[in-house]
Amino acid sequence: MDISSREPTRSRGTRATLLWAIPAAVIVLAVVVLAARWFRDLPSARSFLQTYPGDSALPSWAPVGFPAWLEWQHFLSGLFLLLIFRTGMQMRFGGRPKSFWLRRNDGRVRTTNPPVRIGMPLWLHLSIDLLWVLNGIVFYVLIFASGQWVRIVPTRWDVFPNAISAGIQYASLDWPNAHGWTNYNGLQLLTYFITVFLAAPLAILTGLRLAPGFALRLRPLDRVFPLRVAKPIHWFTMVWFVAFTIVHVTLVLATGALRNLNHMYAGSDDEGWAGFAVFAASIVVMVVIWVLARPAILNRLAALGGTVRQR
């Protein structure tokens, strides 16, 4: 059977799954909220929440607020992740690409590093990956140089019971006290730590393992880290980033939108509208870039560093 004849069936299956997944998620969330509210009424739970309110103390030298570079890093990370998710979905569900990119090689490296033909969605995916990695390197350097790392790296053991406490409060829809300008709660801290120091490096390592060209060069690793293991791990990291983004944006808007947006987009701890204005402008920029990422424009960009051919 031709692959194009299977696409309608795959699309219908995906839509049917989503139709079932949405009401199922609503039911699960309702059960979680009711269970959390019941649990909070127990004497032992009330005592636990009083002992561990959700915040783990930071060192006295911990920085306060968010510098301008972190605001730019936040926007660029969101933009790159949006495009990475888009191209990832295109590769997984889009079928055979309509055009391919072939790197130009000179005669000196042709035999040792032969060009690999890749589909345009993969070319864009790898190109955005490179920008995301470079942005991440800058981020790592600056957070350790500025001391911002202490806000997203556990330094006390009580961060774990405080994370559980914050999770119970979120689940019961009784939000924990918000001190994001000075200190994240335990659950936020651990989530940011996992995202920055575990999920991101894991996505990069598995991505290199799967990338055309690198996959051939790293073939000796097949015995200890085969492609069939790297592929689902890479997919899971994307699912993590998508879930993290959805929950993160939802809680930012639900737990004091203006103040939270000012923290990250205006560098201030107040409830003015400056942060919202910058946030709205960033969404417009993302939408424009999403629309401009069309085959005609992408083919021209890709042709600057290689040859683009139709299938």
Key structural traits:
4% strand, disordered N terminus, 67% helix, three-stranded antiparallel beta sheet, mainly alpha, single chain, 3 strands, 311 residues
Describe this structure in words.
This protein is mainly alpha-helical and 311 residues long. It is built from 11 helices and 3 strands. The protein has a 3-stranded antiparallel sheet. Helix 3 crosses helix 8. The model is unreliable at 1-7 (pLDDT under 50).
> What value does the Rg take, in angstroms?
23 Å
Helix/strand class:
mainly alpha
Tell me the overall shape.
Answer: globular
Mean pLDDT comes to 86
Give a short account of the largest sheet: 3 strands, antiparallel
Number of helices: 11
List the helices and strands in order: HHHEEHHHHHHHHE
Task: Give the strand order of the largest sheet, numbering strands 1, 2, ... along the chain.
Answer: 2-1-3
Outline the low-pLDDT stretches: 1-7
First-last Cα distance: 19 Å
What portion of residues belong to β-strands? under 5%
Number of strands: 3
- Helical amount: 55-70%
Summarize the structure.
This protein is mainly α and 311 residues long. The protein has helices at residues 3-40, 43-51, 68-93, 120-146, 159-171, 186-210, 214-217, 227-254, 257-265, 274-292, 295-303; strands at 99-103, 117-119, 306-310.
Topology summary:
Blueprint: H1 3-40, H2 43-51, H3 68-93, E1 99-103, E2 117-119, H4 120-146, H5 159-171, H6 186-210, H7 214-217, H8 227-254, H9 257-265, H10 274-292, H11 295-303, E3 306-310
Antiparallel strand pairs: 1-2, 1-3
